[in-house]
Amino acid sequence: xxxxxxxxxxxxxxxxxxxxxxxxxxxxxxxxxxxxxxxxxxxxxxxxxxxxxxxxxxxxxxxxxxxxxxxxxxxxxxxxxxxxxxxxxxxxxxxxxxxxxxxxxxxxxxxxxxxxxxxxxxxxxxxxxxxxxxxxxxxxxxxxxxxxxxxxxxxxxxxxxxxxxxxxxxxxxxxxxxxxxxxxxxxxxxxxxxxxxxxxxxxxxxxxxxxxxxxxxxxxxxxxxxxxxxxxxxxxxxxxxxxxx
Amino acid sequence: xxxxxxxxxxxxxxxxxxxxxxxxxxxxxxxxxxxxxxxxxxxxxxxxxxxxxxxxxxxxxxxxxxxxxxxxxxxxxxxxxxxxxxxxxxxxxxxxxx
Lengths: 245, 98
What we know:
By secondary structure, chain A is mainly alpha-helical. Chain A has helices spanning 3-23, 35-70, 72-79, 84-109, 113-143, 169-205, 215-239. In chain A, helix 2 (35-70) runs antiparallel to helix 6 (169-205), helix 4 packs antiparallel against helix 5 and helix 5 (113-143) packs antiparallel against helix 6.
């Protein structure tokens, strides 16, 4: 093929490409038919990732269930030493943050920039409050020598409902190992979530999100809600074993 | 996702779910102070599951998801989680550990 013919056909392709750009929203990538399909693909990808997260936390929940069955009395005694009010407060804080996230997504969908920015800030405030309360809890556990390791101490703690019986410190240490790994991994997810939301806040501030394209807000929101769901299970399992008098 | 395409404002629903989640939290704490013998754990997990379902269906928009594949992924994740927990526990619950 002569050189000039080749060049002209390339130009024709390029022109066609340009027309295609003009015809649709610039946020729509070429390999998607329409915006809805693009949004669905992004959220499906996020859901697959959350599926792996379910298995990730699922392994820990499984270990928890096995040891809780074996050492129920010791787990109940250890659970009673955790501050229930702080845990309940944190549950409420996370639920409120989930509301602000869903409002942020709605604000992005309906092009309310000021609302989007303020909801993202509020979500981060709730997230930081959660971590602060968690920090107070951890500090208490350090002071009480309830952190697994060389200085762990759990002597003469009565088993609820069994007068005269005391928890086995080794079994209680297993509870606290699970407590710190599960809440610690959850807190790590919160910290990552705060990073994601800080980035969303900058993007929202710059006005990058439109009703046509706000995929990061949506899938960032999915992540935040998932972390909330994990806590919804952690709270009763770790804080509320055999609490009744 | 599809809240975007629907004309009805979803705000009322969001606030209703939020209130329900807060009530559920209060109920869990209250139920933990009652002596329900073997049912304390079942009640706590039941309330947690209702709360988690509300978050997934309405805050994570699974209910209105236009893409059936999303629902399939959610169900598959739950199925494998139940397989993990169910088979493990059926083993530990029926084996004789001295």
